[in-house]
Amino acid sequence: MGNSTSVRIIFNKCSHLSFFFLSNFSLIFLFFQETDQPNQLTDLVINPSSNPTPGAVLRDGKEILFQAFNWESHKYNWWETLETKIADIAKAGITSAWLPPPTHSFAAEGYAPQDLYSLNSKYGSEHQLKALLHKMKQHKVRAMADIVINHRVGTTRGRGGIYNRFDGISLPWDERAVTSSTGGLGKQNSGAIFHGFPNIDHSQDFVRKDIIGWLQFLRHKVGFQDFRFDFAKGFSPKYVKEYIEGAKPVFSVGEYWDTCNYVGSSLDYNQDSHRQRIVNWIDGTGQLSTAFDFTTKGILQEAVKREYWRLCDAQGKPPGVIGWWPSRSATFIDNHDTGSTQAHWPFPSDHVMEGYAYILTHPGIPTIFYDHFYDWNHSVHEQIVKLIDARKRQGIHSRSPVRILEAKHNVYAAIIGEKLCMKIGDGSWSPSGKEWTLSTSGHNYAVWHK
């Protein structure tokens, strides 16, 4: 999209599609509902015992993601620690586990990458990583690599006395690989600047060739199957498209974290422009990648404060990216940045299970956070497992239709698909009709099935 005057409509076999044009000819998507049923999504039926192919899991729509670390995990011999939990993760029904950055980094957490081909990090050795990936493959849980390619820490000083050269390590780039916006000899950033580190100039042919080679190494030599693109707003999504086409991951998701719309200090009810920016990024990847639904997170964590009316947009649909493009929306409650010890934008702790009751019953691709699953208490773990089970038993997938029944200050209720009903909030509510049976419930939430 961008500034192009040509308009391309993503139809994707949707019904109830409406749109209108802005003055710059960009397109606002109002994807009210993707009505493909599982047997219509693709002619390829995924056998759980087989290896899924790139694109197939998006068409299937049955993914459940798991962020398998937090901000402090590097302190705890993480690859070996995580290996002991893979059987339990698989048993819960999780399909892909997002691991922290696997390569050598200037910072312990992994988000200041330096030597990309070195697999010895603060999370463990190369041998321990490969043992973990082998265990994941045995249990049919895909490994998602955290791809940090917006910036890179240099080894030697170059132009301007900045560490913008990468001598003595794999991919020994010089200043041409660094954007001029951050002290290099390359072009200006094609996205937002990540301050503090040299930002990579993805417009350089040699840079893209090297990155694709490294991604192929992770994919085919190391054993990762999925990719998560860190700080995706820092470089053009067209490069993400090229990297996905070059390395062919089974599944990809981007972190396009943009600020929500506020009126003073209060979250605005209308977040259409916020979710539009995420939709634009997804479209820029050629629809090959999903994106984390920061819009849904921002709205949901305000809604649970007795503002459940926020969960229904002006068209009567979910107000996040899941209301427009659910098959490309990865919903989540918290991650290592928003929660954990950083707590930059945390979900209210006493409402976390309401949050999971929402994302695990609704369309989109839900993501479970390690802290909630393992570090809180066994009750939270078991409640999440029961919600996953309800989702799977009733065939809820990323495109399942939503019919919102209530969205008031103290209660939200909806029917998802044809056989699952849920409510969150302290208001009294239950579905009418004797055909509904309680599946699971907890503090301020309940789920029923037919």
From TrEMBL:
Active-site feature positions: D230 (nucleophile), E255 (proton donor)
MF terms (GO), sorted A to Z: alpha-amylase activity; calcium ion binding
Gene3D superfamilies per UniProt: Glycosidases, Golgi alpha-mannosidase II
Enzyme Commission identifier(s): 3.2.1.1
UniProt cofactor(s): Ca(2+)
CDD domains: AmyAc_arch_bac_plant_AmyA
Primary enzyme class: hydrolase
One BP term from GO: carbohydrate metabolic process
Alpha-amylase C-terminal beta-sheet domain residues: 392-450
Catalyzed chemical reaction(s): Endohydrolysis of (1->4)-alpha-D-glucosidic linkages in polysaccharides containing three or more (1->4)-alpha-linked D-glucose units
InterPro entries: A-amylase_bs_C, A-amylase_pln, Alpha_amylase, GH, GH13_cat_dom, Glyco_hydro_b
Keywords noted in UniProt: Carbohydrate metabolism, Glycosidase, Hydrolase, Metal-binding
Glycosyl hydrolase family 13 catalytic domain: residues covered: 63-403
PANTHER family: ALPHA-AMYLASE
Family listed: Belongs to the glycosyl hydrolase 13 family.
Protein name (record): Alpha-amylase
Taxonomic source organism: Pisum sativum
